[in-house]
């Protein structure tokens, strides 16, 4: 089985599967992707109802061209196998999002359940997206990324990861207030520099995704009413190289999508790089100057990626 086709998933909106109104709103939203949640957003006693609601939504709602995922319960729960077998045959489901991914053999089991249940109604094989949100999952991320060809993306689960490592953080996606570096300046003044709890896990998930041809999706900004934090944290993930970010409220969609969409200036410069390198190739050169900068094939590949994200290449 070949890797799943690439999708545009700049914004991945979460919706509790048992909350019909929110699911319908998500289907109408401008998000690139939606995941219906059967896990953390659903109380234990409502798991069965949530599964049936997800099935009904996949069968009956108009999802347009969105990528549609369902986050099932964690491997080892009493719910997951039935969830996978119920959902796998549904043609409108693009991917199953597996939370708390930790062991490649567990993901291989899930892939086998899909093999047995998928059927022939689907236009493309059902994908698996993995949520890396525990200390063990982060340690195992490279192995998880290659555990089955069905894997399409790695997501960073920022809230659960904070809990898994014992971080004293009060905001999902944010660093603890006390995580800062304090130095004494030459003029005898103390200088504090805030540090980013997620710099290491973000980079590790991103590198694993790129090493195995997968998309990388950052976790959400829990402060959904704070437009500044929503935009800033999305811009951080986009600048690092992530393909998109989970959002927990429709109000976060526009700012997050904009962060992952190259600006007009970025696209213009990338176009100049591509054009200049084509001309250089025609002249038998491997490098050329653009806007006072020396450009070679590494710059060309960077420029092509920017154009691809902007829909221009």
TrEMBL record:
Lineage: superkingdom: Bacteria
Residues reported to bind Mg(2+): 133, 160
Cofactor(s) in the UniProt record: Mg(2+)
Domain named HpcH/HpaI aldolase/citrate lyase: residues: 10-250
Annotated GO MF terms: lyase activity; magnesium ion binding
GO process annotations (BP): oxaloacetate metabolic process
The entry's keywords: Lyase, Magnesium, Metal-binding
Positions of substrate binding: 71, 133
Signal sequence, renumbered to the chain: none
Gene3D superfamilies: Phosphoenolpyruvate-binding domains
One Pfam family named in its UniProt record: HpcH_HpaI
Protein name per the record: CoA ester lyase
């Amino acid at each position: 089985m070949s890797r799943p086709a690439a999708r545009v998933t700049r914004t991945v909106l979460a919706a509790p599967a048992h909350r019909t109104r929110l699911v319908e709103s998500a289907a109408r939203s401008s998000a690139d992707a939606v995941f219906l949640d059967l896990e953390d957003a659903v109380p234990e006693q409502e798991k069965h109802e949530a599964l049936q609601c997800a099935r009904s939504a996949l069968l009956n709602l108009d999802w347009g061209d969105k990528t549609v995922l369902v986050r099932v319960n964690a491997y080892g729960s009493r719910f997951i196998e039935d969830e996978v077998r119920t959902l796998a045959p549904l043609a409108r489901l693009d991917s199953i999002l597996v939370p708390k991914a930790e062991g490649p053999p567990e993901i291989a089991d899930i892939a086998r359940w899909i093999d047995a249940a998928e059927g022939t109604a689907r236009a493309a094989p059902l994908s698996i997206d993995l949520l890396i949100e525990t200390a063990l999952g982060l340690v195992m991320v490279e192995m998880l990324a290659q555990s089955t060809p069905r894997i399409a993306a790695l997501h960073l689960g920022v809230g659960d990861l904070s809990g898994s490592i014992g971080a004293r953080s009060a905001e999902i996606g944010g660093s603890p207030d006390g995580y800062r570096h304090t130095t004494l300046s030459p003029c005898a003044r103390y200088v504090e520099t805030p540090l980013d709890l997620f710099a290491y896990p973000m980079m590790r998930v991103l590198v694993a995704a790129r090493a195995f041809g997968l998309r990388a999706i950052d976790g959400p900004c829990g402060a959904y009413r704070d437009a500044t934090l929503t935009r800033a944290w999305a811009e951080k993930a986009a600048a690092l190289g992530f393909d998109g970010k989970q959002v927990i409220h429709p109000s976060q969609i526009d700012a997050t999508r904009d962060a992952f969409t190259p600006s007009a200036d970025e696209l213009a410069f990338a176009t100049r790089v591509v054009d200049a390198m084509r001309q250089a190739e025609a002249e038998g050169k491997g490098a050329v100057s653009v806007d006072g900068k020396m450009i070679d094939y590494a710059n060309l590949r960077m420029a092509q990626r920017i154009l691809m994200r902007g829909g221009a290449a």
